[in-house]
Amino acid sequence: MKSRRLSSLLLVIALGVLIFPAEEAAAQKALRYAEDLAPRIVNPLFTTTMSEIRMNELIFDSLFCENYELQMVPSLVQDYVFKKGGTTMDLTLRSDIKWQDGTPLTAKDVVFTINAYKNKRTLSPNARQVAFIKSATATGERSVHLVFVKPQDYPERRLDFQILPAHKFKSGSYVKRNDPFKNRPIGTGPFVLTHFGDDNSITLERNQYYGKQVSIPAIVMKEIPDKSQQANLLKYESLDLVVKVLPKDVAALEENRKIELYPYQTNSWWYIGFNLRNPLLKDPRIRRAIACSIDIEELLKPIGTGDILSGPYVKSSPYYNHDPDVQPAHLDLARAEQLLMEAGFTRGAQYWEKNGKPLQFKLTVPRNQDSAREVVLNLQTQLAKAGIKLDPSWENDASWKKKIWHDRAFDMVLAVWTFDAKEDIYEQFHSKGAKNFVSYHNPEVDRLLDEGIQTIDPQKRKEIYRTVHRILNQDLPYIFLWTLDSYSAISTRVENVTIHPFAYFTFIDDWVLK
Amino acid sequence: MHHTLLTIARKLGFFVAVLAGVSLAIIALSRAVPGDAIDQITDTPEHRAELEAMLGLDRPLLAQYAHWWGGVLHGDFGESWVYRQGARVSTLIRPAAWKTTKLILPALAATFAGAFLLIAFFQFDGLPKVKKVVRSSAHVLSVIPLFLMGYLLIMAFNIPTFVLIERGVIGRPSWFALPGEEAWLKYVLAVVTLAVGNGTLSDVLLHLEAEANQLIRQEFMVSTRARGGNFWSHFIPNILVPTTTIFVNKAGFFLGGVVVVEYVFNINGIGMMIWRAANLRDVPLVIAITFLVAALVAFLHLFGDLLQVGIDPRVREQ
Question: Which chain A residues have a beta carbon less than 8 Å from that of B179?
Fold first, then answer.
């Protein structure tokens, strides 16, 4: 009798927990999306992470932006005068644009933004975006005169940096990182940032001054570090959007009728980089032997689908070299064996050896790299079979940058590069490039990369970069692996979705929230 | 009296020394770990020297240490370098500390209350088989690691609730789905996880039970029982001293556990904040949190010691 009463009581409590307070959450009226790490600062001058870039896209606008055909079209600009190959450009801003506090957009804002980026005291990590502009002058209330450092063929492509409100900054063009603007940023974009939550969430509401009708009334960005938890919350309808789904979650989400998977291209590719300061890896035969010991397709299979690459551009890029003799690295154990013998190695019981030492390398991998564990395990197995020992070492972001970028204390790295639409590989492969941590140096590549920057003829530039692609394929400072198919998972509550390949929320004006 | 004052002075001195040592150690450690905040806020190498000067990283370690203490004595822990660039550290810590307090205090209370209830239950005569089952269950449940217990609890609530919602049996509760919403149930489950998991309940139970058994066997307790005197009026004050020691030791352990529990339940408390700040090499935030946590633990030890001095005349004599 007693146990029955107890069971009844427990059942009532359980139902109470489940039902009370059963209400339709107010958040249902907002588009809720997740980021692994919330923006650390909301100010385009100091943006460095993808979550910050996405947040900026919701709040700020640029002079030019891409349309659905990925062509640059005026955004804040009404008219412009530019002669191809010229060094000046005259812009007239739209008269109907207002900042989110109701103040009209003026030429002063554009001039201020360019000068703020360029001001050396600002220390903007994005100053390179405006380096091609020599000066900007307001020639009228809505007229701006730009002078470029060098002749330009298509400056619209580069005028995609976001514009800041001059009237919100008091210290001239010098903007401090801790400027109060970051607490209440305003832009001319479709949404206004209204609240920073204690849980690191950010709430945005529709911008009443935005020139276009936007269907989504509000957006809530939630910080959820675990990507699998993000997928679960989407399944349980606690989220409406997961920016990038882990390959292992794709199948489960695909089956869900209330979720739509949107494949989208990213300009990013995986690679294995060799430290060319390492005496062994300096030898191209050893690098080639390693490349010939790897079955890239087998490495890719467990983590998803994508294109296997032969060089530093994705296949949809105009710079990708499609010549039949420029092929991705592929498994050829006989060739690997021959190359290692030529390099003076003999096959020991387990590994190739020279002077009694096994052929052994340390592979450094960023700890937060999605799906890297599966790749490393398979790579280790494949190379072990080919007689090469691989010792993986996992580093968090901070120690990765220290060990790889500064100290160059590594043999091989497995990592991913992500590029914007400009696909500029200068920093990675020019001998003076800031991200050339593999210490690659080929005078011909240096010359071509320098020439590529200077060239304004798109056809000529295409030829230059295709040649760079070919040389890198032969020199093998990296084993170019693949570009993964990325999937964004979005609730069917959200309709008319188009995802821009590099700037995720570019077309959010047209999204519809049911 | 003289002895008591001397004991208090010695313990206070130790408290201050611990804080000075901990703060110096953290600042030194932040220099020793690979990577720094500058790599997190820029990838432009030519800005490094200016950013080092801006953040004060170009100054000698002891100068940084002195500067930091100068701020702390004025209640200023500086600005966050990376986590929320330019935000006052104290502004960031305050809400996070409140969230963590909402976890730790109820969890500590739950662990000790649970342990005492179980001990009281084990002391009564009869039901030997039930006692055995309860004891084993408590120990088995308690050995589950925090992250696993957290994920299991989340699944145990999410899966059936979703089924009931889908079938139209219930409406959508405001807490659903865990751990996405800032709801009371999330905190309750996090408290349960912290109070029970990683051997906490089992450990406290074993220690307290050993102390209780030892106390019960003492002559004065045996004679009190034999005389039919009030058992609890003797038992409670005497069990308070070992309980305080266990409580103080466990408080530090709980502070370690919150890192995992806050991650699993997506609670932006002190544990989650220090984990992120450490990954981002946000030195002012890491130092401030570590310093405050160390101060809290040292204070609890001091409090425990002083309480013992107050309660137990033998400690005063020593």
Answer: 229
ipTM attached to this prediction:
0.85
Provide the greatest CA pair distance for chain A: 93
- Distance to chain B for A449, nearest Cα, Å: 19
Q: Compute the distance between CA of residue A442 and CA of residue A426 in angstroms, rounded to an integer.
A: 12
Cross-strand partners of A205: A192, A218
Give per-residue pLDDT as tens, A131-174: 999 999 999 999 999 999 999 888 998 999 999 999 999 878 99
Cα atoms in the 13 Å half-sphere on the side-chain side of A28: 14
Concatenate the DSSP letters of all residues of B70-118 into one string.
HHHHTT---B-SSTTTT-BHHHHHHHHHHHHHHHHHHHHHHHHHHHHHH
Buried b (16+ CB within 10 A) or exposed e, B271-306: bbbbbbbbbbbbbbbbbbbbbbbbebbbebbbbbbb
Q: pLDDT, tens digit, for every residue of B188-220?
A: 999 999 999 988 999 999 999 998 888 888 888
Residue B167 DSSP SS3: coil
Q: Does A142 touch chain B (CB under 8 A)?
A: no
Dihedral angle of Cα B246, B249, B252, B256, to the nearest 10 degrees:
-80
Whole-angstrom Cα distance, residue A356 to residue A230? 50
- CA-based torsion, B170, B171, B172, B175: positive or negative: negative
Give the mutation candidate from B29, B48, B172 for the A interface (greatest A CB count, under 10 A).
Answer: B172
Asked if residues B103 and B191 have their Cβ atoms less than 8 Å apart, the reply is yes
Q: What region, left, alpha or beta, does residue A504 occupy, with left being phi > 0 and alpha being psi -120 to 50 degrees? A: alpha
As given in the structure block, the two tokens for residue A477 are: 């400072």
Beta-carbon separation of B172 and A401 below 8 A: no
- Encode pLDDT of A398-443 as tens digits: 899 889 988 999 999 999 998 877 788 999 999 999 899 999 999 9
| Fold assignment, B2-317 | MetI-like fold (1.10.3720)
> Quick one: DSSP state of residue A21?
T
Report the distance separating Cα A438 and Cα A443, nearest Å.
Answer: 15
Which of A46, A49, A129, A200 is best to mutate for the B interface (most B CBs within 10 A)?
A200
Closest A-chain CA to B51: A123
Using CA atoms, how far apart are residues B292 and B277, in angstroms rounded to an integer? Answer: 15
For A488, the 3-state DSSP assignment is: strand
Q: What is the rounded average pLDDT of the residues A12-34?
A: 61
Q: Is the backbone of residue A133 left (phi > 0), alpha (psi -120 to 50) or beta? A: beta
Task: Give the residue from A41, A257, A405 with the most B CB atoms within 10 Å of its CB, the best one to mutate.
Answer: A41
Nearest CB to A199; choose among B36, B42, B268: B268
**B56: alpha, beta or left, given left = phi > 0 and alpha = psi -120 to 50?**
left
